[in-house]
Design brief:
The complex is a heterodimer. Chain A contains no helices and 11 strands. In chain A, the strands form 2 sheets. In chain A, strands 2, 4, 5, 6, 9, 10 and 11 form a 7-stranded mixed β-sheet that branches. A 4-stranded antiparallel β-sheet of chain A has the order 1-3-8-7, with no helix packed on it. The termini of chain A are far apart. The model of chain B has no long low-confidence stretch (mean pLDDT 92). In chain B, the strands form 3 sheets. In chain B, strands 2, 5, 6, 10, 11 and 12 form a 6-stranded mixed β-sheet that branches. Chain B has no helices and 12 strands. By secondary structure, chain B is mainly beta. Classes of the chains: A mainly beta, B mainly beta.
């Protein structure tokens, strides 16, 4: 068990460019979550997957954002036509759902800076 | 909607001092409550949790009691160490939403000096 990993850890991009982040959850975890954390704030829920199905999306997830989890393992989060307001830490978490505990394990995050 | 309010920081303490970080919540159902900690340069780690009223979560000397009557989940530690310096987040998860979305407070930074 190597924990949740995210790549890249830091990304600097110019406004209008597209960016893609990757999250590798803990193996055997069937749920995967994306959150966004801006400076001085707590993480805010964006979306989550149960295996490969995307089951819930926040209103924060505009049409420029798309997330996938093609084989129920790793996930990608793409932001098209980035804006300065997209600058934030993007956090991924995973959990194994069974009756009772649903603890979410977080990765280190990808810090996005849009210039 | 559901929300979590926690005291603003930074909280500055000397080593071995007593710590309290206040957290209150608003929820329509019966949430589970959590404290997460974020050390510099690291990801969020679950510190402790409580799933029903009057439950006490504890870990690494930290404690928090689920108080339904006051909708609170205050974090306490009897004697803090320099290594406890971090940002602490209170969070809730509605059991009846089915997918366990976490709703976080804004975080409280703790600074402990020797």
């Amino acid at each position: 068990d190597t924990g949740v990993s995210q790549d890249p850890r830091h990304k600097i991009t110019k406004r209008g460019q597209n960016v893609t982040f990757r999250c590798d959850p803990i193996s055997e975890h069937n749920r995967l979550y994306w959150y966004r954390q801006t400076l001085g704030q707590g993480p805010e829920f964006l979306t989550y997957f149960q295996n490969e199905a995307q089951l819930e999306k926040s209103r924060l997830l505009s049409d420029r954002f798309s997330a996938e989890r093609p084989k129920g393992s790793f996930s990608t989060l793409e932001i098209q036509r980035t804006e300065q307001g997209d600058s934030a830490m993007y956090l991924c978490a995973s959990s194994f759902v069974y009756e009772g505990d649903h603890e979410q394990y977080f990765g280190p995050g990808t810090r996005l800076t849009v210039t | 909607g559901d929300s979590v309010t926690q005291m603003e920081g930074p909280v500055t303490l000397s080593e071995e001092a007593f710590l309290t970080i206040n957290c209150t919540y608003t929820a329509t159902g019966y949430p589970s409550l959590f404290w997460y900690v974020q050390y510099p340069g690291e990801g969020l780690q679950l510190l402790l949790k409580a799933t029903k009223a009057d439950d006490k979560g504890s870990n690494k000397g930290f404690e928090a009691t689920y108080r339904k009557e006051t909708t609170s989940f205050h974090l306490e530690k009897g004697s803090v160490q320099v290594s406890d310096s971090a940002v602490y987040f209170c969070a809730l998860s509605e059991v009846n939403t089915g997918f366990q979305k976490l709703v976080f407070g804004t975080g409280t930074r703790l600074l402990v000096s020797p």
